[in-house]
Amino acid sequence: MALIVHKYGGTSMGSVERIRNVAQRVAKWHRAGHRLVVVPSAMSGETNRLIGLARELQAQPDPRELDMIASTGEQVSVGLLAIALKAIGVDAVSYAGWQVPIRTDDAFTKARIASIDDARVRADLEAGRVVIVTGFQGVDPAGHITTLGRGGSDTSAVAVAAAMGAEECLIYTDVDGVYTTDPRIVPEARRLARITFEEMLEMASLGSKVLQIRSVEFAGKYKVRTRVLSSLTPPDIPLAEEMASGTLITFEEAQTMEQAVISGIAFARDEAKITVMNVPDRPGVAYQILGPVAEANVDVDMIIQNQSVNGMTDFSFTVSRAEYQKALDVLGGSVRPKLGAGDIVGDPKIAKVSVVGIGMRSHVGIASRMFRTLSEEGINIQMISTSEIKISVVIEDKYLELAVRALHKAFDLEQPVG
Amino acid sequence: MALIVHKYGGTSMGSVERIRNVAQRVAKWHRAGHRLVVVPSAMSGETNRLIGLARELQAQPDPRELDMIASTGEQVSVGLLAIALKAIGVDAVSYAGWQVPIRTDDAFTKARIASIDDARVRADLEAGRVVIVTGFQGVDPAGHITTLGRGGSDTSAVAVAAAMGAEECLIYTDVDGVYTTDPRIVPEARRLARITFEEMLEMASLGSKVLQIRSVEFAGKYKVRTRVLSSLTPPDIPLAEEMASGTLITFEEAQTMEQAVISGIAFARDEAKITVMNVPDRPGVAYQILGPVAEANVDVDMIIQNQSVNGMTDFSFTVSRAEYQKALDVLGGSVRPKLGAGDIVGDPKIAKVSVVGIGMRSHVGIASRMFRTLSEEGINIQMISTSEIKISVVIEDKYLELAVRALHKAFDLEQPVG
Fold this sequence. Notes:
homodimer; alpha/beta; Carbamate kinase; VC0802-like; 8-stranded mixed sheet; 6-stranded antiparallel sheet; 35% helix
């Protein structure tokens, strides 16, 4: 039968009762004849508790020691899940990342997986055991424990699925799939039965926090069939019914069904924008502005530079609101004088709304429909940026919900695809 | 300068504030020029919390998985202590047992240390770092995590000290040394400046829970100079003063000072005694009785069999009160009929009191003074057992405190040794 990887989030592992539920679900798959590798996260709140202890001792703890501490949350989870499985008669064995081993580089707290040796896991599977592997962590060439950064368990699961050639990687989470937009804002939001890898990438990076973006990249790179499912369905729900739920991330555009033009409306709150005015239009300017910002560890999201007029242009970008002041300080300090630029202006009260859909490649008029919809609601567009499969606009943050609802309706997203 | 091993108990590591205190004490030793290896326990309560989670899932969890879970408490501790040291400018690095590696057998939850490879630790020490190693755990030949059982961090510390030829192993705990008896029962109880290894062994196994008995055995086997110290003194107390506190476990009888005849009064509450009456006096009988008891995982303490009369004898032993009924069930079930023995009688309300002292080897009259003292207090002696350096008696449990106080006084233990 098939080799399947399951991944369970921290909420699913959040209590003894919930761990029992996970065990029942895994047992159901195992008893149906599948070979199972399970990657559970730390119990919810545990990683934060551990990192909190470390930060009480030192504001910027040593990253290697932080990984030593933070990696224990998943180690507890794998042991508990193995015990829960044995308690219901399913043979199981747990491994920490270093035991598999899952080899990474030595970038503590944000390591990248280099390789996975699956011999040990495969031997256990062949002996009929469910194998439980810690997410979020690995071991570097010198034998130090590393972690992959927040949400890294998704990446671990997809990486294990890729390394072992698993038929499918099932990501169980506390939502039941990917929606056309956030149902808390648009009650009519609809679950997508499938989404392409490229769309998922845009949705994830734009704030639909269903899957960690790196895991989606990994799934794309190694063509891992990945499905997002709810861990809140009854654990004994029939397999076929369980598989029909959730959202499948595919690597081909649907052939047999009409593809919706737009898959969903993504958005990001708590953004801020910064514009450096009157920048000389010459090579290297973008780097001179963003280099120091990146060095200050400020993540930049949208970047926009328009056609220059009289050799001068305006250079804009967005950052998360929490890093707005830091970015302004960097630019105001050394960058502006060196650049010979004009004023630096910013606005910490903006939001970003995007329409995403692989279908827009072959459909004209998506942008104009989006802009008309916003205009009819009286929402001013401050910035625009586009890619092959998405159009993003920056608007005043107070209009965010209104914009998302209006766009969801304008693109008929509440209607099932026919 | 000297290579010193420090061990800190769970109470000493129980909060961020206390971990800071430990770091300050370690830093003081490091700055005095010593090379330091530190073995901290899990934060107090943590190991119980983790094992409690496992037992909620299954009453008898798989031992391998239990070790996977329980070993994380110490891993968190070593990381936190490394961060606390770095926060005050002392370079430090932490290792889990498998990283050192500390190699053990595969007896999960009660593994024995087989060997310790000190190359990695030594390299860090030479680079000027404090090295922090998880107590309580190691790795078996197949690469599984093992634990050494309760109190195993003491054993880890002594084993590391032995493997590295450390000058001394300092066990910091929440008492300031070994006392002539429990000060909660006898306020005049006096701290012993030194105690021989053999006496410590008797004191530890008899219920003076200062050091885990296996760590004392280890210290004896490898002649590790071990000192029990309080972690409650101010961390910046001068080194000489700190060394003068606590109790040193020595391997030679004192040459230059008068040795007290008796070092202390040990005791064990919550014991129970069982006697199998009219046992045929023939080879193999003791095994026929205690074999099934041991198989039921009941720990037996004292064992007494007196001279037989007319080919029949009575066979008695003591167990912890919690296991009294279990032991009775085992004996009443299959053992008695097979043995052709008489009644089985027991008493779950007894206590054991012992006088311990290497000096008694060369002094007559210790036993008679002990028995006279108890007689003068009207305390009946139910059973007697002796070794080279201790005499133990079983008495009714309600007389325990009275007996300990009377013996402490009768042997002049409140007086400093002159």
